[in-house]
Amino acid sequence: MQIDTNPCGHLDIEVVTCGPIETNTYFAISGDEAVVIDPAWDGADLAREFTRRHPGVHLLAAVCTHGHADHVGGVAGMRAACGPEFGYLLPADDADMVAVNIERQRGWGIDTPDPGEPTRLLREGDAIAFGAVRLQAISVPGHTPGGMVYLAATDEGPVAFVGDTLFPGSHGRTDLAGGDEEAIIASLAKLGALLPPETVCLIGHGPSTTIERELATNPFMARI
C-alpha cells in the first residue's frame, strides 16, 4: 500500500491508562473535533471526563485497533454517554471475534459490556478524518486477524497508534485465538518499511517508542 506522509494538521494527544489490563486509551484532538483510540474501560466516565476537560470539542467516534475485549471495553459506555451519532469503528476482519473474546475474558473474571454493532468496518487504505488531520488504516494481522495501525501525518511529525502489534523491543501476543507468529513478523516488517523512522508509535500497553528505535533495538524487527 501507499501512505501519505505529507504533514497536515495539528494533533493533540492525551492518554488515559485504564481497565484490568492497564490498556492505553488515546484521545486524538484536532481543532474542535476528536476521536478516541481503543476506549478500554468505563466508557461513560471517559466521555464525561473528556467533555469536562474540553467543553468545546466534539467527540466523534471510537476507533479500535483490534477486537480484543480490553480495547473495546469502553465503547458501550461511550456510545451511551455521547448519543446515537457517536461512531464505533472496527477493523472488518475482527468483527466476528469481539463477542467470542468478550466471552473468553469472562472466564478470566473480566466482564466486558457488549459494544454493539460497529457503525463502520475498516479496511486497509481507509481514512478517518477529523479536524485538520486524518488517520490512515494499515493492516497488520498477527496479534489478531484484523489488527490495524492508524497513522497520522501531522504538522508535528508522524504518529502511529499501533495497538498490540508492536511493543518496545517485542511484539504482541500470538498465542491467543486468531494469533499468528509468522503474520505478526511480516506486519512488523511492513511497518518498518512503510513508516518514516521518526514515527512516534503509541502502544496499547506501556510506553511509546519510535520506528527508528525499534529498527535498531527490537530483535523481531531486526529480521527485516
Spell out the key features of this protein.
globular; alpha/beta; 24% helix; 31% strand; 6-stranded mixed beta sheet; 224 residues; 6 helices
C-alpha end-to-end distance: 18 Å
| Estimated radius of gyration | 16 Å
| Order of strands in the sheet with most strands | 1-2-3-4-5-6
SSE sequence, one letter per element: EEEHEHHEHEEEEEEEHEEH
| C-alpha geometry | globular
Q: Beta-sheet strand percentage?
A: 25-35%
Runs with pLDDT <50, length 5+?
Answer: none
Summarize the amount of helix as a percent range: 10-25%
The main sheet comes to: 6 strands, mixed
Structural class: alpha/beta
Number of helices: 6
Annotation, overall tally of beta strands: 14
**What is the averaged pLDDT score?**
96
Tell me what the structure shows.
The chain is α/β, with parallel strands linked by helices and 224 residues long. It is built from 6 helices and 14 strands. Strands 1-2-3-4-5-6 form a 6-stranded mixed beta sheet, covered by helices on one side. Strand 2 (23-30) and strand 3 (33-37) form a beta hairpin. The longest helix is centred in the C-terminal third of the chain and has 14 residues, at 181-194.
